[in-house]
Amino acid sequence: MEATKLRVNGKRLRASLEEMARIGATPGGGVQRLALSDEDKKARDLFVKWLQELSLEVSIDEMGNIFGRRQGRNNSLPPVMMGSHVDSQPRGGRFDGILGVMGALEVMRTLAENKVQTERPILIVDWTNEEGSRFAPAMVASGVWAGVLDRDYAYGRTDLNGRKQGEELERIGYRGQGPAKKWPTHAYYEYHIEQGPMLERQGKTIGAPKGILCLHWYDVYLTGEANQVGPTPMEGRHDALVAAAEMILAVRALPARLKGNMVATVGEIQNYPNSRNIIPDRVHFTVDIRSWDNDHALKAWDLAKKDFQDIATRHGTPLKIDETWRVVPAPFNQKLVQRVLETAKELGYSSLPMVSGAGHDASYMNQVCPTAMIFVPSIGGRSHVEVENTTWEDCEAGANVLLHCILKTAEEK
Ligand code: HGY
Ligand code: MN
Ligand code: MN
């Protein structure tokens, strides 16, 4: 069949997504496949099986990244890569990440059944621990592969139970031999749900982000003084949770203070000893600041740190701050972004240029090779929740755009 007439098999894509959604399925209709958990392993094993069924050359590197390679006519040329992630948030959605991996798999299946030969080799990838929820930071394995993050730093990151990322990779049998080290790559496409409301609001099917915001992550630790809540007067308390509460409100106020175009969130908190009749003496919380302007985000953090210091002094709750992780804004390759828009048009889909507020492995791939993303609508703009949803028609549309962007790019000499 003539290449431009090729289309993915939407039913098969849906079946793969539904099979993956059964791994780590949660009662509320979402999934929980935390990075390097048993559920993540199950999904990885299934993904590897599917790659082997397509006779792709499967490799797993020391960060557990899974690659499937499809030969081209000229295998000395740098490949075109496509992929995303299989891990999810706690009580996450059935589309975040996995749609990009299953969409790429569907492209590989479509190329195989139509015996399509491309000039360049094509690689599919599942990046380990994109979410950064169990082991911070996010996008850690694409970050190591891109040469930005250090492998042993990543191995040493622990979850709340003190388990190390490197040991968990070992435990699930995905700490591969090959170095997690970039190779020359011609281009990378990542297919993903939008995770926001723009496409739905504007009634568009395909989103073409011009890039991804910067993501800055911090960890704040407060130490107060525990005591019995009854006899201890309010005056002179060193209540770590009250101090944290004031700091959390200060984070919330940052975007308005910086005149917007930024988001700032405290999403995670641990409070100790967390007993209703003990004044809390230890609190840990996280800060997530994102903006298209890196300096804007850094300025916001400087303001926050000053506020935190004042609040900690007032409450007598000394603080420790880890500046855990920063990834710079990722302005994508304009030619590839244009290609996403043109391809959508050729296929008869409406499209919208936009920006990605969500982080993706494409943030790091953008530091390795020309990169672009393909978005499809999130119903109600919801994501990182069990009700995360995208229509099967939109899933198919995005995969068709991915198919033809890959075909065009893999033919480039
Ligand atoms: O944080 C993010 O935006 C992504 O889900 N890791
Ligand atoms: Mn994702
Ligand atoms: Mn996510």
What is the structure about, briefly put?
Helix content is 35%, strand content 20%. It is built from twelve helices and 14 strands. β1 (57-60) and β2 (66-70) form a beta hairpin.
Mind sketching the topology for me?
Layout (H helix, E strand, L loop, with lengths): L9 H12 L16 H16 L3 E4 L5 E5 L9 E5 L13 H16 L8 E5 L13 H6 L5 H6 L8 H7 L15 E7 L4 H5 L3 E7 L1 E10 L16 H18 L4 E4 L3 E4 L9 E10 L2 H22 L3 E9 L2 E2 L2 H13 L4 E6 L5 H4 L5 E6 L15 H19 L3
The structure holds (2S)-amino(hydroxy)ethanoic acid and manganese (II) ion (2 copies).
Describe the structure.
The protein folds into 2 domains: 3-213 and 329-410, 3-Layer(aba) Sandwich (Aminopeptidase), CATH 3.40.630.10; 214-327, Alpha-Beta Plaits (2-Layer Sandwich), CATH 3.30.70. Helix content is 35%, strand content 20%. The protein is built from 12 helices and 14 strands. Strands 1-2-4-3-5-14 form a 6-stranded mixed β-sheet. Strands 7, 8, 9, 10 and 11 form a 5-stranded antiparallel β-sheet that branches. It has a 3-stranded mixed β-sheet with strand order 12-6-13. The longest helix has 22 residues, at 294-315. The radius of gyration is 22 Å and the shape is elongated. The mean pLDDT is 98. The site of one manganese (II) ion (MN) has 4 residues, from loops.
